[in-house]
Amino acid sequence: MKTLYFDCGMGAAGDMLSAALLELFDDKQAVLDELNALGIPGVEFKAEVSTKCGINGTHLSVTVNGEEEESADVHDHEHHAHDHAHEHEHYHDHDHEHTHEHEHDHGHHHHSSMADIEHIIGHLPLEDAVRADVIAVYKLIAEAESHAHGMPVSEIHFHEVGTMDAVADITAACLLIRKLAPEKIVASPVHVGAGKVRCAHGVLPVPAPATAYILRDVPIYGGRIQGELCTPTGAALLKHFAAAFGDMPVMRVQRVGYGMGKKDFEVANCVRAMLGETGDGADSVYELNCNIDDMTAETIGFAAEKIREAGAVEVFTTAVMMKKNRPGTLLTVLCREAQKEAVVQAIFKHTATIGIRETLCRRYVLTRTEETVETALGPVRRKVSSGYGVQRAKFEHDDLAALAEKNGLSLTEVMEKIGR
Q: Quick one: which of 37, 114, 298, 393 has the most CB atoms within 10 Å?
């Protein structure tokens, strides 16, 4: 399975993710030209060679009308080290005075709403799938800012330079991911840094409120490195694209890319992207078990639905004999690490259990895809599973039932007419 893995041991920012992805292409200049040809208003992309701790990588510079956004971490001795743009600094409550954290006075800037952002993205020459990704990622940021500042998304306004910088980073990352076309994306737990960051509204703790909100249910950690390592754009891109967060899977790595930040630390300040092949469907899931002997079938059924809604991969029950020879139910739940906490909370909330057992399991699954097949009776979705030297296909039951109902046929007759 074609797999893309992000090593976020030094956090993640939009420009660092995009730069790491750019390094995975043979003809980087052609990809860079394609990004600049998008015509994002006032934006220019430049790829620069950057070296951190002796490792060469790429820094992707994004300028808006010749201006590059800056931000400042706050240290105990008030020394400000500037890094790549951090998008939460560009939010403004439009009822307040607009101040900027730049070293120079750049004059008056316009401010954009989420509707303005969607209008800009809607007019870029992008495939529909890429456009949908860009809007979805930016909405994660807008919703996080809305929550942090206690106002509707429609009232959130973004500083012009910060807006276009974020649009550029997000568009670049979404486009490059689509061009690479991985079947699965995995990211490591995210290092968010420590300390404080200076923003337009003052000094905020790391991770900043918007970043912390976006990274809910994602494994994150801090450390002794002072500074903001994960930005809202980086967090939103990871949240949107990563199917799982955890250790690097067993994979045959074919290409490695290093996306560099601006700051220098004792640890290389970069995001590392690895593209390669994992085994056919090798995966890890947590198996959560508990025994129940004091719930009705109806309440167990309801609990199972709520546990699935919390993010469980699968929920099933087994009849067991419990202490005092009481018939009981063994509830088994499979989930990924990123959803484990939410699933555990759902189990405790909706069942009568007072304890849950946990086992980390390796599982092997076939690669699954879905296609639409035109038949004599109309279009039907078909699920295709392959791997380990086998391939099998199965029509979507709901589509077959709909055709049977529409044509006054039995399911068997529908299958005979469309072919098995």
A: 114
Query: In this structure, are residues 22 and 14 in contact, taking their beta carbons and an 8 Å threshold?
Result: no
CA–centroid distance for 317 within its chain = 31
Mean pLDDT of 63-89: 54
The whole-number pLDDT of residue 111 equals 56
* Eight-state DSSP code of residue 255: E
Strand order across the 282-292 sheet: 314-322, 326-335, 282-292, 357-364
| SS3 at position 123 | coil
Task: Give the Cα separation of 99 and 109 in Å (integer).
Answer: 10
- Predicted model pTM: 0.64
DSSP code of residue 410: -
pLDDT tens profile 316-363: 999 999 988 889 999 999 999 889 999 999 999 999 999 999 999 988
Say if CB 251 and CB 277 are below 8 A apart: yes
Which tokens belong to 420?
Answer: 């098995």
Sheet holding 156-159, edge to edge: 91-93, 156-159, 111-113
For 176-234, give the DSSP string: HHHHH--SEEEEPPEE-EESEEEETTEEEESSPHHHHHHTTTS-EE--S-BEE-B-HHH
Count the neighbouring beta carbons within 10 Å of the beta carbon of residue 308. 16
266: Cβ–Cβ under 8 A, 6 or more apart, which residues?
A: 53
